[in-house]
Design brief:
By secondary structure, the chain is an alpha/beta fold. It has 17 helices and 16 strands. The strands form three sheets. An eight-stranded mixed beta sheet has the order 3-4-2-1-7-8-9-10, with helices on both faces. Strands 13-12-11-14-15-16 form a six-stranded parallel beta sheet, sandwiched between helices.
Length: 432
């Protein structure tokens, strides 16, 4: 690997700055028809354990495999900020002491714009044809502002239902209000969060979302075209072949992978345990992979649970393969990478009818779709029908084999092309 020289935090732009780009010079950087666009990618999350980070790492790996001109600007603690490997460039900038926690491993730094001179310098040299952000984080805001200053098209992908998260994370406040006022206030919080997110995403010329329902929502709220951007899965890593349990082991393992947070509806796991026991099911335990604010409460209420903490790579793949049923009660996930990873591991999934996971699972074929009241019954039905469960395991694996990351990102690049001609026309029309 060849690395470029490190870019110091103190390095200033000499004689340039936002708005200083000569439009004729910028026009010269646009590729001729048929060549790959130069993409500058600003992800909310890269090193953390979540869907955005997972997608972002795979996006960078796709660019590396294809030798595409790709710049990834992200938050992180790497000692050498700027690195270059063939056509792939990365710029990793630290969050400062003013940052605060959004999740156990994800923070927000309101002072992150202090890095703009450094990012501007790298962008000037990279000369992007398009800038792609993943949401209204501090990194995404910097990317959006610099796209405006550089006069290049902005792409934005929706990965998190921020409006639903805002309402659920306000539950501590809403509980103090009278019942009627609580419901109305919660709805207003969600509507305001959605309106704010819609305004932010309307800055972009092209949008991406992981399921058709969200695509329609974004198109209505922004007036911008939205393309489907589902997720892929590494079917060589996540595979039933990683199963370590003996064939004689008859205990049922119900698995969950993800953040242990209120918006994931993880309190449902306690209800599932109680209802399965009431149905006479006792030969089971939970394998819970992840961490979050709800972990302490779950440990108290789930005597039938093993908490592994965060797992990655081979350890995570083995944990999936050892599961018998994947239980994912979230109503707010926009896609559900973990559901696809479970299916690739040959594990049928039980999911809610809300959000992205229900677009992955084929009810009765690769898993079950059930509301909160029917979750335990759906699991019990699977456990009572071994032949049906075996067929679902096979169907789940077969479906996952059709979901490759390469096909996802090929479609993203095809969508980029829809706005690049607009960029060329805009530049030609600008006065010299």
């Amino acid at each position: 690997m060849s690395k470029g020289s490190g870019v110091s935090d103190e390095r200033q732009v000499n004689g340039t700055g936002p708005g200083a780009t000569d439009s004729s010079d910028l026009a010269n950087s646009i590729h001729t028809a048929g060549s790959a666009p130069r993409v500058a990618y600003f992800p909310d999350s890269f090193h953390e354990v979540n869907g955005v980070a997972n997608t972002s790492r795979h996006f960078q790996a796709f660019a590396r495999r294809r030798n595409l001109p790709f710049l990834c600007v992200r938050a992180g603690d790497r000692s050498q900020a700027f690195q270059e490997e063939a056509n792939l460039q990365t710029l990793e900038l630290p969050r400062g002491f003013l940052s605060f926690a959004l999740e156990k491993d994800l923070r927000f730094d309101p002072a992150f714009p202090r890095h703009i001179p450094q990012v501007w310098d790298v962008l000037q040299r990279f000369r992007p044809d398009i800038i792609h952000i993943t949401g209204p984080s501090e990194v995404g805001m910097v990317g959006a502002c610099l796209a405006y200053q550089l006069k290049v098209p902005l792409a934005a992908s929706w990965h998190t239902n921020v409006h639903e998260y805002a309402a659920r994370r306000s539950s501590w406040f809403l509980r103090m209000l009278p019942n009627g006022a609580s419901a109305v206030t919660g709805q207003k919080i969600e509507e305001m969060a959605l309106a704010t997110a819609g305004w932010f995403y309307s800055w972009a010329q092209v949008l991406f979302a992981p399921n058709p329902e969200l695509c329609s929502l974004l198109e209505r709220s922004t007036g911008r075209p939205c393309h489907l951007m589902p997720r892929g899965v590494d079917a060589e890593l996540f595979t039933p072949a990683k199963r370590r349990r003996a064939a004689s082991d008859r205990e049922i393992i119900l698995g969950y992978v993800g953040r242990l947070s209120v918006e994931k509806n993880v309190a449902m796991l306690t209800r599932i345990q109680q209802e399965l026991e009431a149905l006479g099911q006792t030969n089971f335990h939970f394998k819970i992979v992840g961490h979050g604010a709800e972990e302490a409460g779950l440990r108290e209420r789930l005597p039938r649970a093993e908490f592994t903490g965060v797992l990655k790579g081979e350890a995570l793949a083995a944990a999936y393969a050892d599961m018998d049923v994947f239980v994912f009660p979230s109503h707010t996930d926009t896609f559900g990478n973990v559901v696809l990873e479970a299916l690739a591991s040959g594990v049928p999934a039980v999911v809610t009818p809300d959000g992205g996971p229900c677009t992955i699972v084929r009810d009765g074929i690769t898993g079950c779709i059930a509301n909160d009241e029917g979750f335990a019954a759906a699991i019990a039905d699977l456990l009572a029908n071994p032949a049906k469960h075996t067929q679902m395991r096979q169907s789940a694996r077969s479906y996952a084999l059709t979901a490759s990351w390469d096909s996802v990102f090929d479609n993203v690049y095809a969508a980029y092309e829809s706005v690049l001609p607009q960029k060329i026309q805009t530049l030609i029309a600008q006065p010299k």
